[in-house]
Batch of 3 targets.
Target 1
Amino acid sequence: MTDQPNDNKAPVSNHLTYADAGVDIDAGNALVNAIKPIVKSTTRPGSDTDIGGFGGLFDLKGAGFKDPVLVAANDGVGTKLKIAIETGKHDTVGIDLVAMCVNDLVVQGAEPLFFLDYFATGKLEVEDATNVVAGIAEGCRQANCALIGGETAEMPGMYAEKDYDLAGFAVGAAERGTLLPTGVSEGDVLIGLASSGVHSNGFSLVRRILEANDLGFADPAPFAEGKTIGEALLEPTRIYVRPILAAIRETGAIKALAHITGGGFPENIPRVLPDELAAHLDLAAITPPAVFGWLQKLGGVANPEMLRTFNCGIGMILVAEDDKVDDLMAVLSSAGETPMRLGSLKARDGDAVIYDSMINFGV
């Protein structure tokens, strides 16, 4: 039996273009032109922020380094992006992207130098992408690092049209012999720096809690007067670079730092401790942002799960010498931080993190 032609099958054009396949090169060029002045605003010593070449350049000598060790980090924003996409508010997630990378650099005592981003979407909307990049540039200015390049990928079929994903890549440097952690010992004090809210971890649980309670991002936020839930949850991750670098340079007191991200206290603090030491935390000293108590109550989330999923009001932990704590806290306070003494390091006999008291979430 011979095959019969399928008369219902439309003929393929002999003049297909990339745009016919869903990729708009002109939109990509328009985005580059739109973001050039935004990128230029992140210039710092050592950088040349003209974009459009095949690679970004950075001059370590021009940045003032003599014998530098480079430190690199990359990260994303996670499902917090779903809130930005669904609310149409795209101007802050770029700050989150930078924060998640540069906060990981400064915990090693490194000064962030430059940043590159990756933006992938199903259909490139120039205005939305420009707002995302504007947020990235704002994060770079806060961290004093240059946005020296990036990549925009339009991938129809891989992402739904309005969906996008972000990845960030940051490089910093420290003079040889100054990297952290160093010299951590029994009796050292733990100091916490306040977070701005949920930051950029735990949003899959956040969204599940909202769904279970039939709440949407446009509903009023009981924990943030005058804001919707979406607006309040999009509060960007704090960038701790400038105050921490100032404290390192002015006091010499900081021995280690832990960025409190996914995994919370029990997963992140042990990463910077010797095996023989445990962190004893007085969590009652923390007054967490109201969003955490609201989430715990709505989701019935137990304290241990809160502590290993969210930052619970503390975005950064510092380990410092006891006799230098007063000077350290004074420098941090003058830089606009609200440092909290949260405990100390003791000989380990069991878990690496011990809760001597618990946070009052107000539930």
Target 2
Amino acid sequence: MLIKMHSSWHDILKPEFEKPYFQQLISFVKSEYETKKCFPKADHIFAAFNHCTFDKVKVVIIGQDPYHGLGQANGLCFSVNEGIAFPPSLINIFKEIATDLDVPFPKSGNLERWADQGVLLLNATLTVRESEAGSHQNKGWELFTDAVIQKISDEKEHVVFLLWGGFAKKKGAKIDRNKHLVLETGHPSPLSANRGLWFGNKHFSKTNDYLKSIVKETINW
């Protein structure tokens, strides 16, 4: 199974690829894709790294694992392919964007447009079996994505990390908060949002205000 990842990431993550856990992970994923229906498509597993190169990373959003319904996942957290109905969490993200920035509700659920601007849309687990949420957790992906977050924290400055919900907050525990901006809030899922833990967080305007303050181009959300 080839690791189709932009060279800017491949170079800094090469030591991870050589570790035993990663070799075992790739063997597991290869077997799963050969014997079961899995998402996203094999050539989209590392899409987050191909749309947002290491040098372009300005914002990191951390998700849990890919959508497990047919045709939904495209390798970017919270994002869906064109023509797919918006999942509830994505609807709540878009509602917050609309009110926070006073802009129309987005028409496309494909967040490649964010990734291309420097938003790394990173799921903690990069693959999943159809209709089985969490089926590829605890196989090694989490170690790999922890290493990705660590590399960004160590080797870059002034990155905005958006941590939504308890899982993402734990994932961001090693971020150096002296040189990065970390914004935390509840998860955009209906369970959390309906309890008042999501709406009004203004993460999108706060991100752009910070990027302006360090003279970086803002994100067109």
Target 3
Amino acid sequence: MLLILFEWLEKYYSAFGVFRYLTLRAMLGVMTALLVALWVGPGMIRLLQAFKAGQPIRSDGPQSHLSKAGTPTMGGALILVAIAVAMLLWGDLGNRYVWIALLTTFGFGLIGFADDYLKLSKRNSRGLASRYKYFWQSLIALVVAVVLFSIAKTPQETGLILPLFKDVLIPLGFGYILLTYFVIVGSSNAVNLTDGLDGLAIMPTVLVAGGLAVFAYVTGNAKFALYLGIPYVPGVGELAVFCSAIVGAGLGFLWFNSYPAQVFMGDVGALALGAALGVVAVMVRQEIVLFIMGGIFVLETVSVILQVASFKLTGKRIFRMAPIHHHFELKGWPEPKVIVRFWIITVILVLIGLATLKVR
């Protein structure tokens, strides 16, 4: 919105041309989303408390979590509001990749909202039936995949890029649609599984979004893309502003979500943010790098899969409780220690992901 205004003002005063730079708008996006989250947060928490939007706590979970019963949930709406405001102000609203990212994020956010609402109205932790949740997730992801496949103009936009290998492109054809579907749905549910401790999911999301912002910037720049040996996708650089908005909104939310949390993200935030990371990774052609940088999300998901498979096949559990962050809690790790150590691991993994830009 402001970009249009500044482009008009540039005709009369050239200094306004500085707002064309992605780097400046990305920084402004971070600050705007952060300030909006900090400004809206207290009022939204009071509103959730007034509506008695307290998080139902699993009776079979760690006993230390029982004291969290009643803490407001659906705080992810705060993140979505901050992202929306930042993008309306600093994003290029004529960019198709921006709209695909926003619509995917808010589409999954609506699914999460329905899930959270049912949990609160029925006063249990089950929420929306899994078959309905996965149906709507699958529908949105498949629509997005088909749209991206149909608007692709070069083989680089639909091929699989392998980190560490220069100029290696694996043609996927219609397999691109399947890959996109799994990345978006898988990332969404992986972040949702990770959202079990105060601040555990949001900080890795912020770090991965920051890493993807770098990939978006260089992928959308022809010179950088050629130099680094990655595919050049015109227009995708604008996603750097979107990722920056996630960073700012996430940090603002963490102000209220840090241990002990004043508000929980809920599915409205976790499903939306996971889908956002997934769709950005697809558009910048870095699905494997997302797998690396989001290693904590992958670990949480794999721990659940292994736990369920082991119990069904052998009747025995591999972990004391899944997802794996509960396993470490039951081993005696204090909650803040689990959280911070998972953050440290994510920092390392994001740096490894960024290193693949040069190690080719």
